[in-house]
Known about the structure:
Elements: H1 9-16, H2 22-41, E1 44-45, E2 54-57, E3 60-63, E4 70-71, H3 103-119, H4 129-137
Antiparallel strand pairs: 1-4, 2-3
Amino acid sequence: xxxxxxGSLRDYLKENFNSLTWRNKVSFAYQLACAVxxxxxxxxxxxxxxxxxxxxxxxxxxxSDFGLSKRIESLNTRSQLFGICSYIDxxxxxxxxxxxxxxxxxxxxxxxxxxxxxSGHPPxxxxxxxxxxxxVSQGIREKPIP
Length: 146
């Protein structure tokens, strides 16, 4: 794996958020969206996007941890519940659903990451895992960024 001097996006935001401009935040968001779009164009779905799997190197975004990635054409069976739950597509939490994580799931994760880049902290901090699953499946989201 390539060295990333800024560490994970999560750590980078903790250490540098107050010095980031909106231009920096938009740049990170754009790079993230382009990287995921490129993966999708190549037929790959990440399925585990969160701020611990995004690395920052000299203000460039790098995706990492492709351990749960799948080729789009191989997504024919029900997906297991993977990833950090505040970043997972809420459709995955439905009990009666046989929902398969797909490109839209990665796009949902990007939306959560955009919120995190804008706010400077992970979503739903301090909320217990199972309580968070219930909240997200009920449509409860973080507050908008002012």
